[in-house]
Fold:
Amino acid sequence: MTPFLGELIGTALLITLGGGVVANVILNKTKGNNSGWIVIAFGWAMAVYVGVFVAAPYSGAHLNPAVTLGFAFAGKFEWNLVATYIIAQLMGAMLGAFIVWIVYRQHFNETDDANSKLAVFCTAPAIRSPLNNLLSEITGTFVLVFAALYIVGPSLNVNNTDGKIGLGAIGALPVAFLVLAIGLSLGGTTGYAINPARDLGPRILHFILPINKKRDSDWNYAWVPVLGPIIGGLLAAFLFKLI
Structure:
């Protein structure tokens, strides 16, 4: 598998499971209907876990343009690969959103609330205030990227050569716990996109797909979960380099 495919498949799994848990909680007549924020937060954490452990051996499992840009700025990733990764992440996010729509299509038809249908695809603020919403996304993504820069696997020195041991699927758990912490602590204001591809790709799919009785895709807000995570990721990388 190439790094491009690793990022595409990993991000598709992330959105399939992450968008899927939102659909399960908020769409009508599902088994998980109305099960609440804790279920959504845990579902997204496990979505990250699955996406990371599948993609990590092939691409490093960024699954997020803010992570890719932050790692490149911090000197942990090659700039010439940034565009390739971001394209793969956006395509993967769109694929994941399409899968969620296919799986929950009957439940979309059983749901009258157009805002709930949109929420399966992308984020929206609890209180609409662009600057405050932007600050929330900057803060959440700053925590994500700054902490991720310190998440390293164990290594072993043999004959004066450092080699990564790796923990397989277990090695993805710290990232999952990190996203869970962000969701539970900082996610209540905007729904913690903390990932431009996670929000923009599915939002595009919401715009394109023939969803019954849907609303507009809220393009007036769409810049916040794109710009905020990018700023947060770059600030985290700047502080990491400064330290």
Q: What stands out?
A: The domain at 3-236 is CATH 1.20.1080.10 (Glycerol uptake facilitator protein). Residues 3-26 form the longest helix (24 residues). The chain is about 65% helix and 5% strand.
